[in-house]
Structure formats: C-alpha cells, structure tokens
Protein 1
Amino acid sequence: MSVSLGVTVYSMTNEWLAGRYTLPELIDEVGRRGLGPGIELIGFQSLRGFPNRVSRDDLRALRDAIERNELVPTSLASNADVARKAGAWMGTDESVEYMRPQIELAGQLGFPVVRTQIGLTPEVLEKLEPIAARAKVHLGMELHAPEGPNTPKVLATRELYERIDSEYLGFIPDFSACMRAIPPGMLDKLRQSGLSQSGADALVRAWQSPGAPFQRYATFVQKAGKLGEPELPVRQATLVFTMIGRENPEDWREVLPQVRHIHGKFYDVDDDLISPSIDYEALMTVFGEADATFTMSSEWEGHAYLDTEEQDAFEIVIRHQEMCRKFLGRVSGEA
Amino acid sequence: MHVQPEEPMTLEASVLREDAVRRTRQGYEVDVHLAWYRSLPLSCVEDLSIVVAGKKASRKDIRVLRDGRSLTLDDLAGLADEEWFVQDPLTVLVPDVSPLAQGSETEVEVTLATRIPYIIIGPEQALVKPTHVARKVTVR
C-alpha cells in the first residue's frame, strides 16, 4: 500500500467548537478509535497562542498525546492571514515573517509538512523556501476547490516550483477539487432551508454546466429568481460552487512528484463503502499506483451542514478509512 | 479551508449557549462564541450588536471585557496580535439600567461580523462573515 492513512482533527470541528475535548483528550480519542497512524492539525484551530505564544505545557501535552497514542505527525496547517489588519494588508516581507514561526513550530513538533494556502504569492514562497529547508519542513500548498492542478493560480505556482526545484516546495491535493456530485446530504439541508425540488434540480444543472464557478452560481441565482426560491438556501448554495470542484481525478498524475501529503476530503460514505460525491476508487488508483508512499488525512467536511447529533465525526472517519483500504487493497492486489 | 458559505449551516450552533447571559450591576455580561472553525485576531471583529429582552445594544454601547480591560469595538480593530481562541467566549458587557432578574427567561440575539483574514474575494477585499443567532436563555 502506498498510501498511509490518518486523520486531521479538523474533521472533529463541531465537537471541538462545542468544547467537548481538550487537544490531548481529542488526540486520545483519535488513538482509542484507531484513526491513525497519521495525525494532522490546524495551528490556529487546535493550539491556543499559535504560533508564537503556545505555552510550554500545551506543547508538551501535545507531544505526549501523540506519542502515547503511537501516532505520527503528518501535517500542520498554517494560515497566511494577509488581511489581519483592515486597511493595512501584509506585504511580501511581513507575510514571510508571519509564516516563519508557523513553519519553525511545525519543525519543533516533528511535523514534516506545513499546509500552505493558495493565497501565498510566488514572491513569498521563494523567500520561505530557505526557512522551510532549515526547519526541514516541506511546504505543501493545498490544491482545493475551486482551484485544481491546472487552474491559472496553481499553474503560476507550478512554474515557480519548476524554477526553484526544491524538495521543500510541494502540493497537498484536496479531493474537494475533483468531486463527481454535490453531496446528497448537502442538497437535503438546502431543501430543509426552503429550496424546492425544481430549485435543487436547477442547482445540480448549474453545478454540472461548463464555466467558472462564480458564473455558474450566477446562472443558478437567475434561475432561482425565476422559480421564486427563498433567499436563504440560494445564498447558502454559494458553497456548492466554492467547495465542490469538478476537476478530473486523473489530472493529479501531473503533480505526483510534488505531492507532500494528501487531504482525503469527504462528505459521505454509504453502507457499500462508496462515496456518492467523490470517486474514491479512481483517486485511490491514481495515488495507490504511484511509485511513492503518501500520507493521507481523512478530512470530513460534512460538519459544514451536519451537527454532532446528526453525525458523529469519529464514526464517519472510521468508515472513510474502511473505504480507502478497500480500494487501496484492489490496487495492490490484496483484495 | 476553505471558502465557506456566507451563512454556514452549523457553525452557528455554538455561538450562544444556555448559560450565556449573566446579570450584573451595569446590565448583562453575554458570552459570545466564534462562528468559525479557527481562532481569529481580535482585529477581525468588524461589528457586533446584541439584543437582550427586546433592548438593542449597538457598537457604541457595548464593551468587550478582557483581562481586566473594558474595550470598545474600535479598540479591538487595533489588536491584531491578540487572539480570540476558537474555544473561548468573548465576554461582552451589554449596559441596561434595569436588567431582568436572575432566573428570568428571555430572548437573546447576537449579530456579529468577522473578517476572515485569509479568504480574499476581490482586490483588497477579504470575506466578512455575517453571523446571526437568536435563542431563549435563562438569565444567571
């Protein structure tokens, strides 16, 4: 098997926001339920005072929890926050200094990868490369909907990567970029918010039609207006166009040498271990056949529309990993 | 992560809790939680208003209580290095000369606008996420 499974605790966002766990408790639960070996976190979600003022006690508690559960740190997610000050956005040097402690802390904690976002410009990335190399941390730019491996912003980054040619600059494919359907549960929620069946049909058609995401959303808004759909679900439907991309799973092959980690984004796994909205069979074939071992975090994002009473995040991550093992087993001929 | 919708459907669930409102001599203290998946700098709080028992406190009326300080919303705009940790409430003082007694049931409404500092939606324009939550609570 050339994909090693794990989880990002971002999957447990609802449980976290409700204050049900401290970070060590959450990691213990990940260990108890066997969701590892890989463990990923978002610095600004999981650590108080990230990145400069995390207490020594909290850092030690995090290391201890990872160790006692025999987990392996995979990726620490950073944020660029260029608009932190209204009216005084960060320039290149300020951005570099904002990212530096996030990268250095990842190195201290033993995370081999820092997840970066598409907002980082080539100028910033070029200045971050030596910082990452010194910390022995690989920068993985997350390729997330509405972007994909071949959209213009990503092509600009690929050009930079080719020019600098450093192992410390790479990508994290996120399967939101290449979905095959709107998650049925998301459509259910929009109908509960008042969208009619004709409105839902129009939404699906607009999502499937050609064009840029925001143009397709505009087409849907126009159609919804004619159908007299209520405002709330029409506004909520923006997420269909920004979070659910339609790139081809096969396109990931072009960036395989630069893949540093994978976000196994998912919303749903049915009783037959199939995800209606994402073609995991195709994806596990692409990454499972590659001549490398990748780490992949199960990243459940159904918490965008389901609360903790409707879906236990730990349970659905277990099912996701069963599904991934099934398809990876077929690739390696074990099944 | 991720361009979220303008009104996500569940991040709101934790914003106002059953024990969010406490009576004080000056009015109420209201605990408001962030409707986002990660911590944000205080400078990203763009606007906040709270209605308790039908009386609305707006920008100029409310104060944020933090580490012994009483801060206006304009003060928050300058606090880019202070964090609103995602699991912590922001404690907001809502002035009222005749607050309801402890044990009273009442409706509370919070309207919050937070700038999401890494989701850029246009030239020099970051996403501002509106949050609106209303619920019944018992005054503590």
Protein 2
Amino acid sequence: MSALRTLPVGGQVALLFVILFGVLVLASIGWFVWSLREISDGAQARHERFKRDLRAVWVGATLFWLAWVSGAVGATLLFGIVSFLALREFITLMHTSRGDHRSLLLAFFVVLPLQFTLAGGRWFDLFTVFIPVYVFLAIPVVSALADDPQRFLERNAKIQWGIMVCVYGLSHAPALLLLEFRDYDGRGAFLLFLLVMVAACAQIGQEAASRWLRTRPTARHIDRSFSARAWLIGATAGAVLGAALYWITPFKAPQAFALSFIAGGAGTLGGLVMRALKKDAGVAWWGNASAVTGAVGLLDRVAPLAFAAPVFFHSVRWYFKV
Amino acid sequence: MSRAEAMGLLLAFVARLITGAQGHWKGCPPKAEQRIYFANHQSHFDWVLIWAALPQELRVNTRPIAARDYWTSSPFKAWLTREVFRAVYVNRQRTDDQDPLEPLLEALSHGDSLVIFPEGTRSNKGEPQAFKSGLYHLAQAHPQVQLIPTWIDNVQRVMPKGEVVPVPILCTVTFGAPLTRVDGEDKAGFLERARAAVLAMRSGRA
C-alpha cells in the first residue's frame, strides 16, 4: 500500500484503470468459456441477464475512462450526454400532455446544459441550489402559462422528478471528478470510482442477502426481493468495501466506512424507487424494446448512481468543508 | 460528399438524437425493393422520422411527396426538398386536364419507392382518419410494388401542432408485412383494409 501511495498521481490513476479493465477482460473471457457449454432454459435466462449486465459494466467502465482522460470539459460533456439520453428515456415512459411542451423544452435545452456548465465550472454553491430552488419554481410557472389545468400537479411532479433523477443526480458524477481536496489534487477519479464500486457492491450484496435470508419482502408489490435486513446487509457490504479502499480516498478508514454506507444505502434505495416507477409505467425493465419505444435501458443502469452521487457528494462537502 | 448529402446526414443525426428514430421491421426486412410505405400522419416531423429510420442505402431511392406551391416557395425549401429528399412534387389545386397522381406514377415507373400519408392531413385523435383513394389507384397502376403499412408512434408528443421546437422523446417506426392483394376487391374495401393494417402495427399489438 505504501509503495502505491508514493506513485505519482497519474501513475496511480493509470493503475486503477489497468486493474479495472483487467478484471473486466477476465470476466468476459470467463463468460465466453462458460457460454460454450450447453445449458438449460433456466440457466439461459440468467445467462442473458449476465451478458446484459457485463455489457453495461463495459460501457460504464469505458465511459468512466473517457471522462477521466478528457478532463473537466470532456467529463462534463460526456455525463451531460448520458443525462440527456436518460431524461429522454424517462420522459418517453411518463405520459406528458400538450401543455407540457414548453416545460419539457426548458428542462432539456436550458436546465440540463446550465446544470452541467455549473458542474464543469466548479461553481458548486449555485450548482447545489440551482435545480431545487430556481428550476423547481420555474417549471410550474411555465406549465401554468401553458393554460392547461388538467392533472396539473401530476404532470409537474413527473417533470420535476425526471429532472431530479436524470439531471440533478447525474450531474454530481462530473462534480465528484472535479471536487478539490487539499493534498488530493487530480485524484477525483478515485472518488467517482469508489462511489461506483460501493453502489455496485451494495446492490449485489443486497440481492445476495435477500436470496439467502428469504425474509418477507417489505414492499411486496414493488420489489419481491427488497427487505429492510437485506438493505442493511447490502449497505454494510458497500461500507466494508469502501473502508477497504480508504487508501485511494482522502478519507480515514472510519470516515470512508460511514460515507460508503450512506452512498451504498442511498443507491439501493434508488434502485427500489426506480422499480416502483417502472411498475407504474408498466414495463419490466426500461430497456424492454417491445414495450413502448426503443428505450435502451439506460435508466436502469444510472438510477443507483443518480441517487448515490448527490448524497455522497453533499455529505463529503459538508463534512470536509470543501 | 455533396452539400445535400451532408445535410441529409445531419438531419438524420438530429432526428435520431431527438427521437431515437428506431425502425422496427416486424413484417418485412429492410431490403431495397420497390415499395410504397403508407403511414399514419400526426406531425410535420413524420417524413423525417421514417426517413431516418430507414437504413442509409434505402434512403437514396425512397422519396416523399411535397406540395409544390409550399415547398418551392423559397430557395431553401426548394433545395431541401429537391436535392436532399428528392421529393415528388404534386399540385394541391386540382386542374381538369391533369391527374394529380401523375407525378407519383411517374416516380414509380422509374423504380423509386414512395412514402405516402393516405389520410391526406395530420390528425391528432390517436386513430387515423379514413384513407384517401390515392393509395388504391397507385396500387392498381403498379401491382408489382410492395405496399408496406407503417405506424409511427409517439411523434405527436415530440412536436404537437403549432409548436416549432421538438422535445426529445423516443419514437418508433414499425414496418408491417406487405399488404396482400385480394382479387375483385373494391376501392372502399381496399382502403379500409389498408387502414386496419396500419392500425395493427400500433406498438404492443403487433
């Protein structure tokens, strides 16, 4: 560990990516060898799911690497595009009406670029309040001007919620990359990496725990695998991983544990909320092409991150006063 | 690459960015056969959407229909329809000595594919209105051409009537199986069957 700490920053980050892509290549080779065997129908479904997940991880890792090599502007732009695509998918599945047209234009073409500009420029004070204060007051005003009282509150809630998850939540990913700590220059990639790893670990931990515990689900109509105990185990698993990785962060081990617990717990709760939204919209998973449209399932992938990132970011900012 | 081709690529890119413009080939493969795609008509964006959903090699000889008086009224509009989309111009005012379908028949005898909206006008009621008879006459005159029912979904949310800027919402274009020919069918029966075929492509029902 100490040998690692003495490496220059660039070297450390490069090592991080070498390890990340190394693990992915190994996983893909393993999957390929495994896929050569003959398998039963039940295994086939799991197999397909794993393939989908693996591909998503590849895409995520590549995105992460691109964000890193392209610097502040590139990272912001990249996550901005992801946010655009996620919001597009979200709005597609929510039924909006004619009167929402202007509000949606505002969300897509004004709010989204502005929020990411604020992140890229490191204006974190305005970045924090821009959407919850200004945008959330502006959207209903624009909607009211459209002169359509039908389901007014419901329509506004949908748009605001979409902005909250897809724009506000995701904009914290480039913000984490750009957050400046004392004696921690240029290592924002580690923070984002920690966050993603912790969120993924918490998700996997929770799913494994719920299979193993077989307890009564807390919210049976939304998610049959979610229970409070499984959630706690998942978040703790994330926290343990975070504590084990403390040496890549500016935190001490207990701090890393606590922050990772918060991020992991928020991420899995985000997954639960997204599941509720999907049930509401009547799709099994967002990427279900036969459902409505050609949605690609991006929301499924970014939902935990969209929940974990703001909570993690603001906890860190508040605690460390950065 | 000419300027018209570049413009075409740009427009297709924008359409894909905004709507995804996903083509679902449910009843026929995307092949370069001579076809008439007939679709429901809900917004000005419809043609661009179908065009962007087609593979690039099919775009070259698939042509829309444009009203001559409107689409030749400025140099840019004329350039866009003539050079980029290779539109077939029709006259909206009916004159006694000319069949309004003549330019379309001519394009078909050149081997081009066409995209037509047989409702004649945009509707936003959800279900398409009754079809105009043009489709029937084209099918009579060129029985070798495949008739592909096409359903465009969600586009009325992208650009409702009266708005100028499109909202990014995913849309799909579903292409169905070619309409079969029934011997001795009359015009009304054929048009009703064609309309039903388009409706059957509505997502979730095909």
